[in-house]
Design a protein that fits this description.
alpha/beta, 34% helix, binds adenosine-5'-diphosphate, binds magnesium ion
Length: 248
């Protein structure tokens, strides 16, 4: 594959200032992501995963090293967090429309686009529901729809399914996989779940404990579309074992 990377990270380190010598969160991270690639960073809690996504989103400046995007400007980014962070007083439709409203898009355009997203994430019929009436899985679907509505160049996912029960989480993997195939987005997801990373990603990069360093970069050569059965294949098991031993 010779496509140019959409993102190059070179020798990225992050130290949070604090009273003494500072907290070293990420150490010398280098990698590239190609357009439409689904890359997972897998690491234990505290390995700097959220810190890393904040750097990619342009919210946090690198202490050293660089993050460069194709075309050399900050790309449009959609982000999904562990909690859906929906506005409780806004309906599903109004939550999803928010990014377009902030960009000053007209109401009709925002509504049409929101309807398209609602059908993409399987929430038809819930347009006028409020967040308090949604299950955890539905709320995360709204968050995904909101992240995709302004057609981002890069989708950043910060353990988006970590707060869901196991069965809902597995259903969401299939949904996200389908959405990714339909929308052809470049995705960077961080997670501490080995199964989640293998089910979804083209590549899994394992981070060490703090300070987070890339310990292993594994190509996930499992066929797509991936179905639940894939987790019971011997190749899946082999990859899971490899990741597991790298994490510890
Ligand atoms: P993860 O998402 O993998 O759990 P984080 O990126 O949240 O890891 O945190 C990595 C380390 O940096 C942790 O030790 C955390 O306490 C520390 N940290 C995170 N945010 C800040 C901050 N704003 N100021 C100081 N330390 C921070
Ligand atoms: Mg985190």
């Amino acid at each position: 594959m010779t496509t140019k990377p959409i993102l190059s990270v070179r020798n990225l380190s992050i130290t949070y200032p604090d009273a003494s010598e500072g907290l070293h969160a990420l150490d010398n991270i280098s990698f590239e992501v190609r357009p439409r690639e689904f890359v997972c960073f897998l690491g234990p809690s505290g390995s700097g995963k959220t810190t890393f996504l904040r750097v990619l989103a342009g919210i946090l400046k690198p202490t050293s090293g660089s993050v460069s995007f194709m075309h050399h400007h900050q790309p449009r980014i959609g982000m999904v967090f562990q909690q859906s962070n929906l506005m409780p007083w806004r309906t599903v439709m109004e939550n999803i429309m928010l990014p377009l409203e902030l960009e000053g898009a007209g109401n009709i355009k925002a509504q049409n686009k929101a309807r398209e997203m609602i059908s993409l994430v399987g929430l038809k019929g819930f347009e006028d529901s409020l967040p308090r009436d949604l299950s955890g899985g539905m709320a995360q679907r709204v968050a995904i729809a909101r992240a995709l509505i302004h057609d981002p160049d890069l989708l950043l996912l910060d353990e988006p399914f970590a707060s869901l029960d196991a069965l809902t989480r597995e259903r969401m993997w299939t949904e996200l996989s389908n959405i990714w195939q339909a929308k052809q987005k470049t995705v960077i997801m961080v997670t501490h779940s080995i199964n989640e990373s293998l089910f979804l990603a083209d590549r899994v990069l394992v981070l060490t404990k703090r300070p987070g360093k890339i310990k292993l970069d594994v190509a996930v050569d499992l066929p797509r579309p991936r179905t639940d059965d894939i987790r019971y294949t011997s190749h899946f098991g082999k990859l899971a074992k490899k990741l597991r031993s790298a994490i510890e």
